[in-house]
């Protein structure tokens, strides 16, 4: 294309010159042509052809000019200038131009005379019979010629030429036949090349020393070589192409032709026309001969005209390159081994041993940069995949590349990137294709990997893609080889199993050494279809090379980003099987093999987390679980839960013991190192928190279940990731990379709950590092003493700015920071966890040392003691005196969001609640808090706003507090020690906290607990009867979580069973499956329940104080940055999974020390049966029971009366008054919860007060359960009768006596009819 452009430019210049008939114009045109165009043309004589075409066009009139004759003379003048400048010889000018132009230019004297001479010469050469023929020729002359030339002791060339001339003249020999004989002898003895070349050079057949006066009639040669010799050789080639001729052309014929071409005696273009065939066989052999003579330039001209590169040509090119780099390799890379000999390098010929000029044509590379030169790269591109035929050369080139790339890493020159790019092109065009075609060994594959390792993985993956797509495969060798490889690997994949994984793994490894992109692509394809093949293929992959592992990483990531496949199922609730299988395989491979590059996988995860629509969370989750063994909450089993609060080292050791894979320790450390070195350790955690927020506040979701699933999955992954970081990064390193709470919330825009979860370990580290803190005394006695840890001062100040100011009306910023800073490990110590672990570890590991575990246990015990001592210092400044705000803010900003965060946090909240009661925090009312949590009005509002995993966490929390309360209710001494001990928070109504009234008695506590169970029954009944799938699903999940504690009576169990049986007929398959699973749990648990549910209902239920006081306070309760939270917050959290029963699983460690042989629920029922002293008179029995109650002794000094009974009476009157208020409130709302008051208890109440009240059996005694107004929707009125009683049928009383006595309700104070929440006013009605 470039030559055509220059030819057109020359013609345009000549045309422009014709219009200006001046010598200056002709000279300018000549200079332009010679300087700008001729150097770019392979044959400069094309200028004469252009002049001839232009002259012919002028003669024919094709070019419009004013004066034709003057124009032709002007062109002839330019030819005269060319002749005078000596640009072309006179002979060449005479051959190319027309006679008229030659005459005008002065090259010939007369057009007519020259024309006649040319006719005469033509006639003599073509038509006239030669004067000598076979009849005149004498064979003796040819014999003498043969004898003369074949003599090994021939005299000088000049003497031989004299003899030849005399033989030709004397015997009338044909000179052409003599030349043919000379060529035949040359072909027969090519090693005598020097003699024959000198003979031709000094003879009249030499094209270089042509005499200008020599008669062209006899020679037929010129500056372009002797065409007669070329024709003679071509005739010989043509002879061997004849079908009747059985023999093939000898290689000596090609070798002689190559020597003559190399020496310039003949031209390649003269001979090439005689060689062109369909099979290109003669062209290939001629190219080989040219390479044997090291005539590389002419060989390239032949090679470029071939469709494919023959192996013979490749071998010779490899030999040339090998010799070129041999000295360089010996200097740069050879260590100890013997240098390669020349005869071991050159392949395909031995002619170089006798042909001395051969070495003069070899390229020579002396420094590493010579390999990157244009001429060297041309050799490499020509060879391409042919390097596979010379393994020694291929290895040397790889090591030189590795050496140079190492040098370039320290190079700061401007052309560094150009050099690196050249090496990348070399890898792309030659090295990688050579791997596919050749039969390589693992050592060579490792050499290739060391070269590729010098490039970043982005460039490597781009090279792999081009390699897989066979971009550089001109001769289709790679394509043909891959067809065979693909067929072989598919046969192996059909037969691989877990039993023969080792054997088949060797076959996979051997096949993948040469073409990993093809082999592993089939492996990845199989994994996506068959999940059960993952273990076998992971085991079989141990025979792969480092290059294969890197290629596998590329193929896995490419499969993840395949846009042609849908990752989510059509329902949007779960991922497709191929995606889950691939993620699992990725995690297992990353754990097992350290050669797998996880940095690229982490970068992929970090990028995908910024896309809320397709974050690909299973990739990160499986990578963590595969490499560290840390599972997410949905995969936790019941025996895993007790270990959530154990020592970090014990938790890690249990994971290692459970997985039974020695590589898990190294792989978890490798994952941590990759995260920290890449700076992604905290970035991924922040991205997960931001992703959760983006899911909630992003695009509008029409499918609530899909939204909940996405929230669950994001929350589970975040929890799993933080758990992994906590177990594998030491506290000091973790603290150095984690930003502050303020930065996380304000700079990164995540919620305080997630921010504090990320920072928790950092805060614990700085607190522990600072040591125990003592309260700071101030001069002002009235000023509060600062009891907070000095290291937390900055964090306390930050949370004060982040959260709204009204939060601090109920709790302090220091308490908020303490609550979120503590973990389950710091407040809960279970000795049996360590004992159980030692027992199991001893059974599994023979050399297990229990001393280490004992040290962990002692350290854990000391740490919990220090934390409790610290909390005892802080407890007086936790809560304000406004108890209603205390419960609201503590629940909304501390307990509720952390309950829903994870399973560990749910258990933490339950333990922290126990700890508050144990240490006796000021201004905290446990009874009020439990009533709020277990409210039969609040719980049905909370349940439908939870996700499925959040409901499981909420259920775990409820199970813990129910287990704790049940444990306390079994023994009055426990109740006194844990709830009524010195300094502990009294379990009493809120309205008695400030007046020093009596605490709740044990009997009252038992009745309150039973009342809570009834509330739970009412709540779950409302949810299970609902038509909303979310409410039903979440209710069943919570019931499954608390199945060990609820239902506690056969009556409640039977009622739940009836409701579940109705749900089993639901058309929604997920709900139907959950219902069937819970039904089995109910049926299995009924045998442990009491037959008579009234045994637990005989005691009078004492209601907690109305929680509506919280909502009736003047404090505006708001929840910022979350539309799902109000007074009862409904936060954002994790994902669903298959239903799992935890009722019948054996627990590793009981939370409380109790007799395991007794069923807790049956024991609970038995404990409330009639006591052994039931034979005593009623009054004496009452006095005995009363003696066990806390006594409030107060003497009235004025009248000397004991007022203990008076105080008791006042307390009970107040309780009754509250119950009547609640009844009135529920009448207004139309609600019908009923709590019975036992008649015997009523008589006791009158007896203590010194007076009796006659009770009418025809009247019904009711008490309404306390509840706060519904904050989510306006409260509807209705449902009350004229006489103030509430009508209720048997089906709605949920195990309550259907025939109670009636008491006229006392008037209740007016309720607030509106409430301000999130800027909206909610009004009744």
From TrEMBL:
Acyltransferase among keywords: no
Entry's localization field: Nucleus
Major subcellular location class: nucleus
Record key words, sorted: Nucleus
Domain THO complex subunitTHOC2 N-terminal: 508-583
Single GO molecular function: mRNA binding
GO terms classed as biological process: mRNA export from nucleus; mRNA processing
Residue ranges annotated for the THO complex subunit 2 N-terminal domain, each copy included: 39-281, 343-506
GO CC annotations, alphabetized: THO complex part of transcription export complex
Compositional bias (Basic and acidic residues): 1130-1201, 1211-1247
Official protein name in the record: THO complex subunit 2
